[in-house]
Amino acid sequence: MFLLATFVSVALLETVSNVLLVRRARHLSISIPVLVLCQEFLKLFTCIIIVLYNEGLEQLKRHVIKDWFTTLKVGVPALLYVIQNQLLFTSLANLDPATYQITYQLKILTTAVFSIVLLNRSISKTQWFSLLVLTCGVILVQWKDSTPRDTDSLSDSNRVTGLLCILFACLTSGFAGVFFEMMLKNTGGQSIWIRNTQLALCSCVVAFTNLLLTEQTFIATNGLFHDFQPVVYAIILSQAYGGLLIGMVVKYADNILKVFATSISIILSSLIGIFYFKELTFTASFGLGLALVVTSTVLYSTSPAKKKAE
Questions:
Q1: How many CB atoms are located within 10 Å of the residue 202 CB?
Q2: Sign of the alpha-carbon dihedral angle for 244, 250, 256, 258
Q3: Which pLDDT score is estimated for 271?
Q4: Which of the chain's termini has less CB crowding within 10 Å, N or C?
Q5: DSSP class of residue 65?
Q6: 270 touches 276 (CB < 8 A)
């Protein structure tokens, strides 16, 4: 329960800060790939400084540069997250919002499956049931009715394309998260900061490549840091250091706890939207979803699985 509470606190801090900051930045015409590159570069810079201070230059060169094969392996999640984002954009363009919301929650179950396959983790029947309850709860919390216009303009081929994309996105989400957890826990004597340096380096390469492929016209017309204001720098800080904090918690917890923490943070940020911003309405589906998420969290945390025999 302590790990879950810690995870919820970190996820909530990141989610709420991002909600507040992004809300203030809505009117700005910034380049998202530039924003992503900046936050990844900040992660890399921070991790390098910490490694140099704690372990020295030789350890940095040894583990990040000379052991280039391991660095490339850590880059697998970075590449998968980019692929996942492209798949999600495609699915959003080809599915109605309700189908998108429901189908994307399958990432909860794919995370559990990959935890079993890659980490040899045991999950009890009660915990499996709690994961199904959690999936239903998150769907209900995020439920918004689709209007006829949302669905009538989509052909069957569009829906098939959208469904295939979001199913692959669920697979990449589960695999990438669990794979990085595996790399964090099987460090081979490397510190978590070495691992984070390797991940941030690969993420910078992927983000820079994406920037070159997608934003040449925008940058040529407006410049690299067009419309960057103090709130944008605050978003970069929040995303970068929030990501590092979550990575540290994953090392000592797991991705399934992360799923629960993220789900709870979605509910809490939604409640902020309902009672503070007055942008959302407390509906029956939200109330039922809230009850299901809380129930599933209690079920999962109080029903530990028996450890597999060695």
A1: 21
A2: negative
A3: 73
A4: C
A5: I
A6: no
How is residue 178 written in tokens? 């669990």
CA 271, 275, 276 angle in degrees (round to 5)? Answer: 105
pLDDT of residue 148: 43
Alpha-carbon dihedral angle through residues 82, 84, 85, 87, given to the nearest 10 degrees: 130
R_g of the chain, CA atoms, integer Å: 20
User: How many other C-beta atoms can be found within 10 angstroms of the C-beta atom of residue 212?
Assistant: 11
**Mean of the pLDDT values across residues 288-293?**
84
pLDDT in tens, 69-118: 888 888 888 788 778 877 876 787 777 666 666 677 788 888 888 988 88
DSSP state of 62: I
Calpha distance 69→76 (Å, rounded) = 11
Q: Which of 60-74, 186-200, 271-285 has the lowest mean pLDDT?
A: 271-285
Which has more pLDDT, 310 or 36? Answer: 36
Residue 93 or residue 223, greater confidence: 223
| Residue 149 CB neighbour total at 10 angstroms | 8
Q: Which of 86, 130, 75 minimizes the C-alpha distance to 108?
A: 130
The residue to which tokens 């994961």 are assigned: 131
> 24, 231 in Cβ contact below 8 A?
yes
- The values of phi and psi at residue 28, to 5°, are -85, 140
**Could you give the C-alpha distances from 128 to 116, 251, 301, in angstroms and in order?**
12, 22, 12
Q: Which tokens hold the place of 27?
A: 């009117």
